[in-house]
Amino acid sequence: MKYILFISVVILTSCFNSNSNSNYEKFNIDKSEIDFIEIRKRVDTVSMRLSENQIESFIKNLGNSEPGGPLKIFAEYYLILHLKNGIEIEYKTEVGTITANGGLSYRINDKEYFKNLWFEQSGLSKNHYEYFPTYQEKGEIFQVIETLNQDNLESIKNVLSENGHKWIDIRGILFYEGKISDEQLVDYTAKARKKI
After folding, report:
1. Parallel, antiparallel, or unpaired for β 97-100 and 105-107?
2. I want to staple 124 with a disulfide (CB 3.0 to 4.6 A). Which of 16, 38, 119, 170 is the partner?
3. Are 40 and 50 in contact (CB under 8 A)?
């Protein structure tokens, strides 16, 4: 009876261990293999190159990350690794998770890491916020994540300026400086729509 119990415990333990992340390989790439790395925002078509320090930080953070299985994510940012042998590897990021198409996923401790990489390369501070049209319906406030056309973009720039807010336009993506309440954003969106 003890023998059967021992075998059952061993089998159950091996089943649980087979589902753990320890079976997935840790991220491992030699910096000398990398020619350069680019980052771009989901809605952007232009990529920006990471600095040498950012590349080292990227390799270190992913080397210390928690590996997981293949995972489908909604891409916030794309990172493209250009290797010296001509191979390109594209990764998608969502919050603190990064994954290659159909490949392993990696989770890092800093949920703002990829956002901060992009902000740093764009010359923005943590006090900048991306503008999204904001609406109120049946008491609920919600934002619509969309790319603004030129008329909408110019209109909201005018409204922000009229209300004393500093803003920056990075290739059609609008960022304002300083926190703006959701209620104010609803008001600004409505005013901008009326100007078109």
Report:
1. antiparallel
2. 119
3. no
